[in-house]
Design brief:
Layout lengths: L1 H12 L14 H6 L7 E4 L2 E4 L5 H8 L3
Length: 66
């Protein structure tokens, strides 16, 4: 999955970035409460980025990573 690969690359470049992965199948209530309606969804503060095909640029722009 592109999102997972890109997040791992970003974490290698910026080890201070924290990534929490929520398994929506195992935790459907938490996912729903957190506003997760689509997989994948990235959350940064109150902002969310969802999409079936998120590009590396979209992910980095959302996280404000050059």
């Amino acid at each position: 999955m592109l999102v997972g690969r890109e997040l791992r690359k970003i974490q290698e470049e910026h080890p201070d970035i924290e990534v929490e992965e929520i398994d929506v199948v195992a935790n459907p209530l938490k996912s729903w409460q957190d506003g997760i309606r689509m997989i994948p969804t990235l959350v940064r503060g109150e902002q969310k980025l969802s999409g079936i095909f998120l590009s590396a640029k979209e992910i980095r722009d959302f996280l404000a990573i050059p």
